[in-house]
Amino acid sequence: MVLGIFTCGLNNLITTMKESQYCVVPLHSRPEMIKNCCILINSEWPRSETARLRTLNMSCDDFPTCLILLNGDRVVGHCKISLISSMSDSCFIESVVIDYERRSQGLGSILMQGAEEYVAKKGIKNIYLTTRGQEQFYLKNGYNICEPINLYGYTSFITSSPMTKEKARYIVSAGPPPPPMPINVKKPHLPIVSAKTYMVKKL
């Protein structure tokens, strides 16, 4: 049960849950936590420590920004926020992860609320993300399923029409086109299925 959210200095959000305190803060404001944050993310998506640390060290006030959820001096959550070059006043949230031992305690919602308050102060109006299997969590937190967005600066094809889960399953993900098929190789006759569900929340 969330008892309250309070602002504690610039970009710091302190949330009191029962007897424990949780803070959502920019990672670059707590550089001593970068190594622990790397361990947390790699526990979910293994990657070389060198590459992961390079990405985390790019966190800054002007985006991309990594936010961490702290319980005292322990990193229990992380998300990365980037601007979408093809859309104004919009950002993309990725790499949302909560410590495995702390899941199902409402911490994911605290992290998302902290991220939303952070970007709102930066003038962001729309938050986009992708998920695979966690649609219900994001729906509960006010996100809606939408059509894929273009994250790479090409023409955007967002529409305002409502998106159903059934429709979302058959959408090709945004991004550069795949390389051409080799000559004399038959293309498989399989349904085109989106690997991820795109979701949006308007602030």
TrEMBL record:
Q: Which SUPFAM superfamilies match?
A: Acyl-CoA N-acyltransferases (Nat)
Q: Which CDD domains match?
A: NAT_SF
Residue ranges occupied by any N-acetyltransferase domain in the UniProt entry? 25-164
Q: Which GO terms describe its molecular function?
A: acetyl-CoA binding; N-acetyltransferase activity
- This protein's GO CC annotations: cytoplasm
Q: Where are the transmembrane segments?
A: none
An example of a Pfam family matching this protein is Acetyltransf_1
Q: What is this protein called?
A: N-acetyltransferase 6 isoform X1
Q: What organism does this protein naturally occur in?
A: Cephus cinctus
